[in-house]
UniProtKB/TrEMBL annotation:
Protein's recorded name: DUF2628 domain-containing protein
Listed transmembrane segments: 23-43, 49-66
Keywords: Membrane, Transmembrane, Transmembrane helix
UniProt keyword Transmembrane present: yes
Pfam families: DUF2628
Amino acid sequence: MIGDRFTLAGFLFRGLWLLWHRAWFAGLAVLAVDIVIAAAMALTGQVGFFYLLSFGLALIVGFEGQQWRVASRLAKGDHLLDRVEAADSEEALLRAAMKQSAGHQQGSPPPLPPRRHLAVNAAPDDPGEYIGLVPSGRQQ
């Protein structure tokens, strides 16, 4: 369960926080931007401007880091079951369970299992089997 809220740890630790939560691409990108900001600050001596940039990056990670975690989990194959609005994780679990049980009590069927990819005959017996535009093996 991942809350959609500002995270102080993400604000303070930015890239390391994202890497801790296994959002690898976002974590490495934020660390790279942090390094570029630090190098530019050292080279130019413009401390105030680059502190402002670093603070802006920290705000972005603080507000959007949770969504980057969700995107990372979805990319790894996890499934988003539901979204609920609640004050804390316990209430969110309770609401999700109540919502799930209410759906089954109203006569709705249980969720379908994930689809499996089945092998399909690549060459039909009858070339007239297809409807629509289908590439053929013939060259013209």
